[in-house]
Amino acid sequence: MKIKGFTLIEVLVAVAILAIALFAIVRSSTQITGNTAYLQEKTIAYLVARNILAEAKSGVLSLPHSGSANNGNLTMLNRQWIWHLQIQPTADAHIEAIHVTVTAINQSQVLATLTSFVAIDDQGQTL
């Protein structure tokens, strides 16, 4: 009489294959979670940069003179952000470039950078 079933070696090989597959699934889900958090930070930093540009172009935030910079802190979505706004001249004397960079308060890595342009009159005032 022959008994049908799995041997101990076959069961151990199946368990080992299952463990490798589960490890790969857990590792990929951990990476996805980390990427999601990073992308969320970059998105919020981009929104901060857009807000600073909008405030600068609308006159709510005073623009520094060409070649100088302005810094500040901003709270958005319960997080602190540091922004840096710099005005630079362009090849056209009536146009200046506005560069905004944003970092999280506890990081040194720049998460968002935006550039826009403003027209200026002959007295150096923005239009």
SSE arrangement:
Blueprint: H1 8-58, E1 69-76, E2 79-89, E3 95-104, E4 110-119
Antiparallel strand pairs: 1-2, 2-3, 3-4
Give an overview in words.
The protein is of the alpha+beta class and 127 residues long. It has one domain (8-119): 2-Layer Sandwich (Pantoate--beta-alanine Ligase, Chain: A,domain 2). The protein contains 1 helix and 4 strands. The protein has one helix at residues 8-58, and strands spanning 69-76, 79-89, 95-104, 110-119. Strands 1-2-3-4 form a 4-stranded antiparallel β-sheet, with helices on one face. The longest helix has 51 residues, at 8-58. The protein is rod-shaped, with a radius of gyration of 27 Å.
Give the fraction of residues assigned to helices: 40-55%
Order of helices and strands: HEEEE
Mean pLDDT: 89
N- to C-terminal distance? 98 Å
Overall outline: rod-shaped
Query: How many DSSP E strands?
Result: 4
Properties at a glance:
127 residues, 31% strand, alpha+beta, 1 helix, Pantoate--beta-alanine Ligase, Chain: A,domain 2, four-stranded antiparallel β-sheet
Short account of what is shown:
By secondary structure, this protein is α+β, with helices and mostly antiparallel strands. The protein contains one helix and four strands; from the N terminus they run H-E-E-E-E.
